[in-house]
Amino acid sequence: MKLNYLQLCNFRQFYGKTPQIKFASGDRNTTVIYGNNGAGKTSILNAFTWVLYEKFTAAFAAPELLINQRAIIEAKPEQGVECWVELQFERDRQLYQLKRKCYANKDSQHQVQYSQTNLFMLVAGDDGRWYPPLEPPEDIINRILPASLHQYFFFDGERIDGFFRHNHDSSIAEDTKELLGVKILDRAIDHLKKARRTLQEELEELGDAQTKQLLRKQINLEQEREAINQRIAQIITQVTQLEQKKANFSRQLLAISGADEIQKQKIKLLKQHKSLKQEIIQRKNQLKQLLSRDSYLVFLPAISDNFRELLQTLRDRHQLSSGLKQEFIQQLLAQQRCLCGAALNPETKTYNQVKSWLKKAEIKHIEESAIRLESQVSNIKVESDNFWHQLDQQQEEIKHQYLELNRIETEIEQANRQLKNYPHRNTQQLQQNIEAIEDELKNLILKQGENQQQKSDRSTQLDKLSQTIARHQLTENKQKLAQKRIQVAQDAIDRLNEVRIRLEQQFRLTLEQKVQEIFSFISFTPYVPKLSSDYRLTLVENTSGVEAPVAASTGENQILSLSFIGGIIDRVRQWSQRNTLMGYDSSTFPIVMDSPFGSLDQIYRRQVAKAIPQLANQLVILVTKTQWQGEVETETKPLIGREYVLTYHSPKTDCELDSIELSQQNYFLVKPSLNNFEYSAIVPVQDKC
Asked: What is d(CA 22, CA 11) in angstroms, rounded to the nearest whole number?
């Protein structure tokens, strides 16, 4: 998706029809729009999301008041005021023109009524003329860049640090699946399941009584498993919502003077509690591995003692040590002469006596094997003692960890009592709310475990039943054909499931690697981003050799979010180029960023300024003068293709003028309004393309 231009008419601060904001591309792919706070940077960001998806960012105040107030005031009664945003973009050499409109009418009592929005699209034909599309515009837009993904490409940089912290219920994993095309596989699996169900019903009609009974049982089990899956999904959603409420109550406790210290200590204890429980799980797993791998050693010392006694008995009887080799005896017999010089004629008594030593020499290899075994057996006692030592050590560690866990739980309980008895009513109520949520979470987690067990039981029953049905002898050709079709559908489902799982795992690992690369480039900290299976992004540090979670600062969260967005775009771009049949054509991306440098310090601002132009094929940056000047300007300037200034016209007669120097020319950021109305104008800077 390549952006060509954006144009506004009576949209928020912008009165009348604005000039087209044309976007840079190619080597100088960055478009910069300068404006003071309140001049309309966030309005331009939301103009993109409104025209494409009729959505707004969290920072966009009063989204219902889209139409410019001056235009409404100047309009005559019953005269409609038009508001629209027009966006032209390209995709696969196809040109699209998109316009979303709404209207306002002022009646005779000066009451303003707003209309519903309307979306219009035109597509350029090969003959250079514009034509309406054959599909609904919304379907085309969602095929090019799905609505669920717009937050990755159009975002408010000042609030980006909360992208992961406060949106735990966001569907990042689902959005990423959409971008990858995994949803196509999900839909294919759903269609195959429906087809299999139809075939099962067909076979049920064709089959004998036993076949019908087996198939009906199979269908019932599948329906039960689907219902259990839905219950599990609902529980996960409820748990996520409750966790978010609990975090919100915790933040409120931190805002109460006096109680904040108790809450901080409690949060610290909870982190230790969580970390210790993970260590106990890890230690128990190590204990299981030790028992699984080496527990056989405890049975060997007695056997090894018996083995050594047996060897010694054989040696005492001279049944092992011969001291002769078969080759030497065979050589004597071949030469027909003994070592002492006596003749060894065949079939003589002397010859037969020497020949009898061949049998004794045959056990020489047994003696050598016995020596090797004896050497190995001698280590068994050491290994057995070492096993017992490790076992005692592991159990002692677990015991110590449980004692520490009990101590921490006691301190947490003490902190809870302090909060419940704190002489501040809000504190007591918040603590009660937190405890109520914790009780509810425990019940939900138990329910989730119960449902998981039920799901596992149903899956086991279905596997056995499928094998029974497969072995069941079907007599008629139609039955056999239906059974074969069912098996083919199931095989296809299994294979697509495997492909989907591998695709997700592979993408997540490559995404995590790219996020780590970007974060490492921007940040000077030794922290490492980690991406969980459900796309939860966290920071860890392992300076001590053991990974430990890090409480990220606002700046680090902002960098983490930028790294994730950059990683998503980079990996999906590469992914889609290799797997164009799997998903959307996502090989080119624009990014529109409002105030992307937020509260970053000088070093981070410089590193972010270096990194973000590489994240997308087109970059649109909306910044204030103070955010721009300095290291950001130095790093970004060589990549700028187009620039615009938002000039804010203030109705205040004593407003302070402000300007910015660009291309050796001053452009007003703030100037007095000549008509006593507040509005902003879009002023192009000298074209750099």
From this structure: 18
Q: What percent of the chain has pLDDT over 90?
A: 13
End-to-end CA distance of the chain: 20
Tell me which amino acid residue 343 is. Answer: A
User: Beta 528-531 vs 537-541: how paired, if at all?
Assistant: antiparallel
Phi and psi torsions of 375, nearest 5°: -65, -40
At 32, is the secondary structure helix, strand, or coil? strand
Q: Residues 633, 638, 644, CA angle at the centre, nearest 5°?
A: 65
pLDDT (tens digit per residue) in 5-64: 999 999 989 999 999 999 998 888 899 999 998 898 989 999 999 999 998 887 777 777
Which residues, other chains included, contact 446 with Cβ-Cβ below 8 Å and sequence gap of 6+?
Answer: none
What sign results for the dihedral spanned by CA atoms 216, 221, 227, 233? negative
Q: Cα separations (Å) of 239 from 176, 245, 248?
A: 22, 10, 14
- d(CA 520, CA 516) in angstroms, rounded, equals 6
E strands, 207-349, in order: none
pLDDT given at position 572? 67
The distance from CA 521 to its chain's CA centroid, rounded to whole angstroms, is 20
pLDDT (tens digit per residue) in 117-151? 999 999 998 887 888 988 899 988 887 887 877 87
CA atoms within 13 A on the CB side of 553: 10
Mean pLDDT computed over 594-615: 76
Neighbours of 198 (CB within 10 A): 13
Residue 253, pLDDT score = 78
| Nearest alpha-carbon partner for 621 in 609, 631, 630 | 609
Output the pTM of the full model: 0.59
Mean pLDDT of 495-519: 84
Contact present, 560 and 529 (Cβ < 8 Å): yes
Cα distance between residue 159 and residue 188, in whole Å = 37
Average pLDDT over residues 589-616: 78
How large is the average pLDDT for residues 164-184?
57
| Closest C-alpha to 560, from 176, 160, 168 | 160
DSSP string, 593-614: EESTTTT--HHHHHHHHHHGGG
- Entry field: residues in the chain: 689
Q: Which of 357, 370, 378 is nearest to 320 (CA)?
A: 370
Q: Are 2 and 590 in contact (CB under 8 A)?
A: yes
For residues 335 and 343, what is the distance between their CA atoms, to the nearest angstrom? 9
User: Mutual orientation of helices 554-578 and 477-522 as an angle, nearest 10°?
Assistant: 130
- Cα dihedral 662→666→668→674 (10° resolution): -150
Indicate the angle between helix axes 172-180 and 554-578, nearest 10 degrees: 20
Topology (CATH level 3) of domain 2-145+586-684: Rossmann fold (3.40.50)
DSSP, collapsed to helix, strand or coil, labels residue 99 as strand
Q: Give the confidence band of 170 by pLDDT, cuts at 50, 70, 90.
A: very low
Decide the pairing of beta strands 590-594 and 154-156.
parallel
pLDDT of residue 585: 47
pLDDT of residue 637: 87
Domain boundaries, the chain: 2-145+586-684
pLDDT of residue 575 exceeding 70: no
CA distance 562 to 163: 9
Burial of 340: CB neighbours in 10 Å, binned 0-12, 13-18, 19+: exposed
pLDDT reported for residue 205: 67
